[in-house]
Amino acid sequence: MKSRVLIITDRNRKIPFSSIISFYDLQMVPLEEAARYDISDYIMVIVDLCSEQGTEEAIHYIRQQVPHIGILVIQDFVKPFNRDLYQNVQGYGQFRVMAWKPALTDKLANLVQTIIHPEYPVIQSRVAIVLPLYNEESRFDNVLNFLGKLQMLIETSFVNVSVYFINDGSRDATQPLVEKFKKAYLQRTTYISHINFFSSLALEHNTRKAGTYIESLTSIDADMFVFVDADDSFHIDDIAKFLNIIKAGYYDIVVGTKDMTTENRPVSRRVMSFFKRLLTRPLLPYGVYDSQTGLKAFNHAAAQNILPHLNVSSGLAIDLEMLYLAKKLRFRVLQLPVICTDRDGSHVRIVHDSLQFMKTLLKLRFHHKSL
């Protein structure tokens, strides 16, 4: 029995799906009848609607039923990039948009195959998810919770992903706990392709975050890099959203902002963030006002070109330095709101780190004046 693909279509584009995707059992239905079908019976969904509102309704319905199912949206070839479509999509499955014209039948077939079988992609994209760690022993349960969610993301939607622990000179039992987790995972997994899901690197000295970014970009070979706090502060839905946008190819860098969405955030941190935004905004790319939220994604070109200019002395301001360099090097940057929960046990020293941040802020223009 062939695997089944659901196609929600108004048939206006007259795409010959049955001849292009002949190796699957296709069920083509109009939007108004989609609710009659159980999305979980299908391995992916194609949305081919000329109406933007209809497209958004279809996506919302699909991901309400099955959050991890892959979706391919068909749009007209001349239609401009719609970032709102990516921003508003829910769930953590693959989400791709294809600009259609009759000459692209092979591309359509390849995209369908890539979404259905990410373990055998036609166009392979290697993703590195980087987790900076520092003295996480007392809250390693948060790290384990987050790793469980990442494992679900990897195994259901983004197979060609590796997770890297970058230990920033921890002085507690963080590294032994990481090694214990990796050993337990290897004993559980039955797939050779899963052996390299989790890797680790350890720095000799604490660099206040900057070294973890520089070491990962130096040591890891990947097509996309995601930097995210390891303490289960962020949702995998947002990580999936960032990856889908980078894969679309319109933006080089996607950064999160938690200013309007953070839960459990102390007043002192809110005040500090407010003043940081005022001071740093002139240094940031157009449309970006928050450099410090701990979730960012870079394509290979951006990561490769920014790396040579980074300074380990930047400390916690490494995020600001990366975005300042992105502006100077004219990379395309998109900022999106993300859901975030501030966890207890933060290693940020408000007064000391704020002063160091200000010093770095003053040095940035001087360090990179030749760009």
Q: Which labels suit this protein?
A:
371 residues; alpha/beta; Rossmann fold; Spore Coat Polysaccharide Biosynthesis Protein SpsA, Chain A; 2 domains; 5-stranded parallel beta sheet; 38% helix; globular; Glyco_trans_2-like
Please write out the topology.
Elements: E1 4-9, H1 17-20, E2 25-29, E3 44-48, H2 52-65, E4 70-76, H3 83-88, E5 95-100, H4 105-116, E6 127-133, H5 140-156, E7 161-167, H6 174-188, E8 198-202, H7 210-219, E9 224-228, H8 236-248, E10 253-257, H9 267-280, E11 295-299, H10 300-306, H11 318-328, E12 333-337, H12 350-367
Parallel strand pairs: 1-2, 1-3, 3-4, 4-5, 6-7, 6-9, 7-8, 10-12
Antiparallel strand pairs: 9-11, 10-11
GO molecular function, one term: transferase activity
Keywords: Transferase
Organism: Paenibacillus sambharensis
